[in-house]
Amino acid sequence: MLQIIGSVILLLGTFICMFGAIGLLRLPNFFARTHGASITDTLGALLCIVGMVVFTFGMDDPMKFNLLVVVKLVSIGVFLLVTSPIAGHALTRSAYRRGLNGKGAPNLEDVANLPFGIHGAADTRELLEGGEEWVSREARSEQEPNNSDNLNSGEQS
Amino acid sequence: MNILLATSTTAMSGEGVYNYGLVIFLMMTGLYLVLAKGNMIKSVIGLNIFQVSVIMFYVSMGRVEHGTAPILLEQDLPHHDSEHGHDNHDDSEDHGLLQTRSDVALASTADGNHDADGGTDSDVHPQAHPEDTEANSPSLHTVDGRTAYSNPLPHVLMLTAIVVGVATTALALALVVRIREYYETIEEDIVDAIENRLQKEEAQS
Amino acid sequence: MTFVSTITLVFFVLLAVVAVAIGKMRSLFAAVMLSGIFSLLSASLFVLMDAVDVAFTEAAVGAGISTVLMLMVLHLTSDKETHSNEVKVFPLLIAVLCGAVLLYATQDMPHFGDPNAYIHQSATADHYLNQSYDDSHIPNIVTTVLASYRGFDTLGETTVVLTAAVAVMLLLGRPKEEEHDLSKSPDPIIEVGAKMLIPYILLFALYVQFHGDFGPGGGFQAGVMFAAAYILHALSGTVRSAQEAASENVVEKLIPLGVLLYAAVGVWCVLKGGNFLEYNALDPEHPAHGQHLGILLVELGVGITVFSAMLMIFYKFALRGREVR
Q1: Assigned architecture for domain B17-64+152-204
Q2: Domain span at residue C158?
Q3: Burial letters for C80-106: b for 16+ Cβ neighbours within 10 Å, e otherwise?
Q4: How high is the ipTM of this complex?
Q5: pTM of the model
Q6: How far is A60 from chain B (nearest CA, A)?
Q7: Cβ of B174 and C220 within 8 Å?
Q8: pLDDT exceeds 70 at position A155
Q9: Distance between CA B158 and CA C58 in Å, rounded?
C-alpha cells in the first residue's frame, strides 16, 4: 500500500519535471525559462525523493536496512534543496550582469538602488542595517564590482 | 536489430547483443568527432565519448543476469564458529544502522547443484560450514540457492581506465590552452592553414 | 525483455542521442554541458549494469572534474561557437565502415548478461569471488582486486595521475603577466551556499575513502571529492582565497607523497620478508589483517595523489592569464 503511494508521488515528481522541460522549450526569454526550469526541477526532484522514501517504508526489510536508506535519501534531498536554487540564482545573476535582459548591461551604481537581493557583496555591505558590515572574503581588496568573467560565460541559452 | 540476435546452437540465456551494437554506435560517434577536423574542444569531447564507450563495452560484458554488484552480501560472508546460532530476526535490537557483520547469522545457502555443462554462474560458493537450520533469506539475486554476482574483473580494469582517461583529458586541455595562446584560434583547419603559410614562408626565405 | 533490460536499453539510446547532439552542437558551451550529461547518464548505466565502483568514479571524474576543466578551457579560449560544423564525408565514411565491420563481429559475442559466457568461467574470476574474503576480510571484491591482487597496476595508475599533473604544471605553469582570477565577482548567496556544503563534502570524502572496503568507494573517488570541495571553495570566492586553504606549495609536495606512500608500503613488505606489495608479510600470524592494513595504506596513498593532482591541475588552469582582446 505504501509502495503504491510512493510510486504515485514519484510519478507526480517526474510529471512536474516534465512541465519544467516543456517550459524550457516554450517560454519566450531567458529569465522566464530559468525561472520555470529551476523552480519546477527543484520541486520535482524533491517529490521524487519523497516518493522514494515512502516507497522504502513500504518495503519489507528482513535486515532492517530501510532506516539507513531513508536517511541517505533525506540527505540527498537536503543537498538538492540547497544546491538547485543556488544554481538557478547563479545562472540568472550572471545573465543579468551581462545584460541579457535586452536592456543592456546594468550601470552598476544604479544596481545599488535596486531592491535587496540583486547585488554583489560589495553593494550589500552598504545596505545592511545596524552598522555591521557583512564583509566578504574579497572585500579587503576593495574590488570594484565590474562584471567580470564568471564561468557561466555562455550567453547562448 | 534482428540480424544481431545470434542464433547459436548452445543454449545461451541473456538478452541478445543489442548492447554491443549501441556501444559501437557510440564508439563511431566519438571516432567521427575526433577525425572530423573541427574545434579542438569537440575533439577532446569526442575522445571522451570514445573512452566511455569502450568502458561500457567491458562493463556490459561483465554483467550477469540476476546478479548484483561484486560486494559480498551479508549472507555470503563466512563467519567464525562463535557466531553460529544467533537469531536471524531479533526485533528487540536495532539491527539496521549500526549493525556489524558479526551479529547477523550466516544465512546459509543450501549447496546448490552445479550446472551440468560446467557453466557455473558467477556465484559465491560458501565455505565448508556446518549447515544452519535457518532458511536463507532469498533476495533478487539468488539463483539455485546461491548468490549471483557480476564479474568484478572488468570493473577493476575500467576503474583504472577512467582515471587514466581523465588524466589524458586534462593534459589534452592544457595543450589546447597553449595552442590557443599561440595561434589565437582552436579550429583545426585554421591552424593547418596558418602552419602551411608559415612553412611556405620558411621555404621561401 | 525484462524491466531492467528495458531501462538499460532506454539509457543506451539516450546516450546515443546525446552523443549525436554533441556532434551537431555549434555552441561550445552547450557541447560541454552535454558532455557532462553524457557522463552522468553513463554513470547511471553503470549502476544498472551492477558496476557501482565504476559508476561512482565516472560520476565524480567525468561529470565533475572533466566538466569543470572544459569550462575553464572555454573561458580561457573564449570561443563561443565552432565555425566549421558541416559534416565531413571522409571521416563519416571511415566511421561507418569501421562500425559496420565491428557490428558484423559482434554476432559471435556472448549475450548480454549471459551467466554461461566464457568470461565468467575463468579461474581468475572464480578465485576473486570466492577467495577474496578469506584472503583479506574485505567484502568489496573490487577494492581487494584493485589494491591487492592487481596492486602493481594501481601503483602504475597512480603514477600516471602524477605524470599528468606534472605535465600540466609544465605546460601551464608559468603565469602570464596579467594573472587573472576566474571568479571575480563575489556573490553572498553562492558563498553562503558553498560554506554550507563544503564541510559535508569533505566529511563524505573522508567516509568514502575508508568505507571503500565495505561499499563502493576507495581512493580515487575520495581524492576527487576532496578536490571538488576545494574547487567549490575556489569557484564560490576567488582562487586566491582558496589558496589560503591549500596553497600551491603544499599541494605540489603532496602529489608525489601519495605515490611514495604506495611504494613505501611495497618496500615495507619486502623488508618484512615478502615480495614487493605482498601484504601478507605485514602481519605474518594473521595474513588477512596484513592485507587489510596494506590495502588501507595504499588506498590512502592513491587518495592523496589524486586529490593533490586534481587540485593542482585546477589551479594551473584557473590562474592562467588570458589575453585581453
Answers
A1: Orthogonal Bundle (1.10)
A2: 137-325
A3: eebeeeeeeeebeebbeeebeebbeeb
A4: 0.91
A5: 0.81
A6: 12
A7: no
A8: no
A9: 10
